[in-house]
Structure formats: structure tokens, C-alpha cells
Amino acid sequence: DERRKTPENIARIQLGIDVYKKIAAKKLGKNVEQLTIEDLKNEILPLLVLNRELEQLPAMRKVADELHFPVEKLQEMPCGKIGVCNTKTQFEATLKDPKLSKLKHFTLITTAYHVPRVARTASVNLSEDIDFDVIGVPLKDFKFDVFNRVRGEVKRIELYSQKGDIAKYHRVK
Prior knowledge:
The strands form two sheets. A two-stranded parallel sheet has the order 1-2. Helix 4 packs across helix 5. By secondary structure, the protein is α/β, with parallel strands linked by helices. It is built from six helices and four strands.
């Protein structure tokens, strides 16, 4: 569905691919500019996980395809339907997956205003032996009312804190 190819989804996937390429280059001993599609398919490289509502995943896959990311290294991770999925269910779905449940490091890509909630949710839902980074797509890349987005985010943080779905503070190693 083309309507789901929002500027936010496109920017998150683009940044995810950029970060993936930096990781790939380091692991393969190359510069990012030298990487080929075949390099990105290397078995030593991790998966790029698209973790979102079931309805969002086809559009996200299409964006990754349009950005020439190899489908072999893409994993779709549905966390429920729209209205059911939230950051906690995204972590639950990830940790149930046999390919991902044994990982010791996650790099999470989200929009910048989501970073505090995602980091605090990771702090509660990932065990202490799992390290993680949360990288935010800069807000300057979007043409929306940042104040209203942040205000909505604060409400979600308050609600999820009351439910115990997120940590009071972000875990720092």
C-alpha cells in the first residue's frame, strides 16, 4: 500500500540501511563505497529487521527493495495489527524469534522523537546481558509539527510507564 510509504518510514529504512552498510564495511574490511550487493549478502553479516505492524511491512519491504537492499538479508517482524502493536510488542516479537533471540547486541533505528521511549522500553524488555544502541532519524528531515509529535510521545511514555512496559530511566552501560 503506497499510503504506508511515509517519509518517516522511508527515512528510518534508509538510515537502517546506511548503518547496516557501515557495520558490513567494518566486518568485511572495506569502505562503504566499495560494498557490492553481493558483499551485503555475506553470511557473517546480521539481518536487517523491519519490525512494525503487520499492515506496514509490505510497504517497508518495498522501500528496502527500492533502496536496493538484498532481500536475503531482510527479515520482516510483525508485532501485531495496527492498534495492538506497540514498542513492547515489538521487543516481544523480536525476542521470540529463534534467529534473533540469541543476539547480544541490537541497533535500533527510529525517528528522533521516539528515542527516549524506545531506549526505556529496551531497558525493561532486554536482559542485562544484551547491549543496544538507539539511533534517531533527525527531526529536521521531516515536515510535520514536532511539538504535537513530541507531546503525543510524552503521553505514551507516561501511559507505558504506568503499565510497567518501560523503565523509569534508560539503562546506560
